[in-house]
Write the structure tokens for this entry.
Amino acid sequence: MSLNAVLSRIDNDLPGALDRLMELLRIPSISTDPAFKADCARAADWLVEDLKSLGFEAASRPTPGHPMVVAHGGSGGRHLLFYGHYDVQPVDPLALWHRDPFDPEIQDTPKGRVIRARGASDDKGQLMTFLEALRAWKAEYGTLPCRLTIFLEGEEESGSPSLIPFMKENAAELKADLAMICDTGLFQDTAPAIVTMLRGLLGEEITITGPNKDLHSGMYGGAAINPIRVLSRILGNMHDDSGHITIPHFYDGVTELPDAIRQQWQSLAFDHARFLGDVGLSVPAGEADRTPLEMIWSRPTAEINGIWGGYTGDGFKTVLPSEAHAKVSFRLVGQQDPFAIRDHFRAWVRDQLPADCKVEFHGHGAGPAGHMSVEDPAFEAARAALADEWGRPAAYVGCGGSIPIAGYFQTVLGMDAMLLGFGRDDDQIHSPNEKYDVECFHKGIRSWARLLARMA
Amino acid sequence: MSLNAVLSRIDNDLPGALDRLMELLRIPSISTDPAFKADCARAADWLVEDLKSLGFEAASRPTPGHPMVVAHGGSGGRHLLFYGHYDVQPVDPLALWHRDPFDPEIQDTPKGRVIRARGASDDKGQLMTFLEALRAWKAEYGTLPCRLTIFLEGEEESGSPSLIPFMKENAAELKADLAMICDTGLFQDTAPAIVTMLRGLLGEEITITGPNKDLHSGMYGGAAINPIRVLSRILGNMHDDSGHITIPHFYDGVTELPDAIRQQWQSLAFDHARFLGDVGLSVPAGEADRTPLEMIWSRPTAEINGIWGGYTGDGFKTVLPSEAHAKVSFRLVGQQDPFAIRDHFRAWVRDQLPADCKVEFHGHGAGPAGHMSVEDPAFEAARAALADEWGRPAAYVGCGGSIPIAGYFQTVLGMDAMLLGFGRDDDQIHSPNEKYDVECFHKGIRSWARLLARMA
């Protein structure tokens, strides 16, 4: 019995592991849309059954939203908690998918075999890498590698409204020595990476109302205020010509990158041209004095994620609508306070509102930026294990996305978190035709086996 | 046999006239949405049958779009052409309707009885006032009052793409001494009005593309351009702080109102506060140095009639979309050239486009402003007939809407047009819960009987 036997078992059972992942991918667990509530519960139940088959005591635990999957198993060694999420992003625009997003398929592509489906990479494929590593370990050794808690969320893609209350209510049960979070990617597709900086996220929905009903633009056009015009004007002012965000106090708490980190990032030789070129772009859109890597890892953003108002169907309608809407989000860094920024944004919008217009705001989740401590020796053990599998040292990197759970493990449970994962930049997460490379899935499983061997 | 007998017959047959209108209103003839193509044809067929019952030779005439209804009848006197349109606006947002827009109902309201349905006022109720007047006339006299051509369009609410080709192909058949167009309203609800100035209309649909696919705003936010941000910024610049439109050359051909017309309009004692107050507003939104009446009758506009992009469903999605869209329209006055303005608008958008973005335009109809001659003695006859019915002299007024057909009768058929109708400002045309006052319908029918008696 040895790590090599576990790795061989993983190699031999890859078809079975893919079949299990495809079963999970067939469940359309879109958490943000209430129409898929039963599917979210079904995905949780599927995971509970799978965890039970690995010897865990596992249960789907109710929340006001979608259930949490919590499982306990193994004994001895360090007590590790593993976190992933079983919910997925919506699939619109559906017309751009080449097949049903919930009918997964293994496809041959010029860059290798991929698993194509919504959630293949974010996060069902990633979370299954850990469970498959445990499955091989258990088959080989007859036990789990150490004391383990599995904690799988179903609201990660919709602002995690139940997460903090659930963690607080179950703090004693959930507390472990270290949390492992598998929801991030490789660096430039081939280098394993551990994320130490995460951006925070603030979501705001804004509705501007002008006339008390939709009007005919012939009868009223020119005299009556058009809320789409007001909304466009306000949101069009959110950036200046150099990409700087104009909301007063927005940059409060934004710190400059320490020289040591800047130098480390420069040594990563990030391919800026390829990063933008992959998505059909060539000119960085952020602040003119920053590199794209700084823009996405260390600078805050203000983005309009959705806008709608008036007539949006086929043809034309000369309507002057009563309402216009937008969904706006901010990625936060350093010590930016999401609640202060919410207040500053709302005040800034109100200050620009013409007489006669009303505005309503609806908050959609708010989390600060995350900064991971790497003092726990498990981090160096993980880097070594990852280097064994990938043939390259693991890099400490930033992440432009927001994984608030890492901060919550620190603030709510007093537990450090290690973020690592095996996604690639071209996985098209949150987009049509999401995929996960079979190579990433396979080597991800092997990576966890190596990590557990060194850390447990 | 006398006009009074015709008027009595109209009074007595009002319930029957309302029943017939409700039959027509039950047909959802939304011309802009291809899903309702068969319903448009059905509305045309219904009118053909009704016209045949009045003794007309009538037919539904095919076009590349929706059919034209053309009917000929009567003899002697002046040859009058009557124009109306049987198509209606879309009904969204459907949730704001208090009942099915195509299940018409007579309702008692504090301001009197109304016919509630999409198209009740614009334009099915209005066009039926003319047909009902003919019905009473025919019943009383046994013949139609004079030589008449009826010309009913089914594409008025979707840019009239087939209109000019059809008029050109059938010019000899359609030419009459004078056109009567029933698609306008009373002045301030009680005074009959004949429209002598109409604004033109230009429609443009714009699509801005940034990244070649939807992106995750965590992975790319800050570095990748967001087309909603670009679209908002461009459209937000379309007006300056004083409401002036900033597109270069936009005001070419805009003439100042002649003093005589300005004085006449001032004498109308338009209630500006009530006009805006009726729709929940108090501050005119147009150019700061103009009155609301000038804004809607004599000044051009630039309006965003629809905008959409990114995620617009329930919840939140941190997407950075590939595309953003808007429908923009311009109301035109004086000698503004719609085709020149289309070019100026497109150039102005392109000039503001960031490096990595593309823009596509789709034109949605273009017609210049209209200026009616009132030299034909029929205009004074009509004013007298309207004064008989309404107890107030008919005013010559402007109209903020665009009724391109009036200009086409002049330019294509060399025929003057008289625009009069019986709508009220609170009819909510193009909006949810459209209505037509039973009083307007009833007195509208009586008005046409009086006009025909004086003009035929």
Q: What stands out?
A: The first strand of chain A starts at residue 57 and ends at 61. The domain at 3-198+369-455 of chain A is CATH 3.40.630.10 (Aminopeptidase). The mean pLDDT of chain A is 94. Chain A touches chain B through 100 residues (CB under 8 Å).
